Amino acid sequence: MIVTGFLGAGKTTFINHLLLQNNGVKIGLIENEFGDVSVDTRLITDYKPECIMELSNGCICCTIFNEFSMTLQELIKKHDHLEQLIIETTGIADPGPVIEPFFQDPDLKRLFEYSGTICLVDSINFHKSITETNHQKQVILSDMVILNKAGDVDPEKLKGIRKKLSALNKTATVVETNYARLDSLHLYQLQPDLQDEFVKKLRKPFYSEAESGGFHSFTIRFGGMLHENSFREWFSYFASLHRSSIFRIKGLVYFENNPILAIVQSVGGMTSVVEGAVINPNDPLENILVFIGKEISKYEIEKEVHKYLLQKHQPERKADQGD
Question: Residues 146-155: pLDDT tens digits?
Fold first, then answer.
């Protein structure tokens, strides 16, 4: 699990609560402190995780891909009994480069199951902080957004914050809290819970387009069962092709001869396809993809999706018969 969020939003306090709630689970923690001396590690006092790795005087989001991957592999070699890993990014970080290796690197995909990214938001200073591009990306790339210090903000302001968050990331689960405390968050249940909430959100009607701070978000829906291998190949190619303009793709698709719903997503051009829940025959057979990016056209993206669908359904040409 990756924990990101605004400076002063309560990330370390949240992790403290998380460690206490999951007492008994063997947890590894990577603390990223931007400076010469680590402060955050000293604040992890209530319950010590199995191991803490400090990355000071630099941001892991700027670390070379291979170096970050090797660091995580070394961590597992030294602590092969770990059951969960929490990575906290700095408040100034774009979490994309931290998420991408878990989609791309085959060794990390073998060692870790990416359960999601949680973003903590300071409700009091939200409108000041959200103008920063990296803070917007923290929201865009998250699966859950925690509105911390919600009790110190009037309901109308909270309503406006939720509207802004929805414009940036309409698929994320948004919860309000105080003192960065979520009493019901259990690490082993995080991924299935987030998947359930995500699917429920996607299936709600009137899923409108939104734009915020130059970021554009829209949804494309289409029916039918997809050939798994051809979709994976196309999705990987498409995401890589548009990686500079599309920051996040997330959706659900149905594969032929597969009773399990597939949850697909892309971050920074890297793609992931994981199993969701067993398909309910009463649910609509509708594939749904949500796109978030800058300077992207729904019309152009729809054309590319439909082009793929047309190619998929075209009959294979027979080779000419020679004499």
Answer: 999 999 999 9
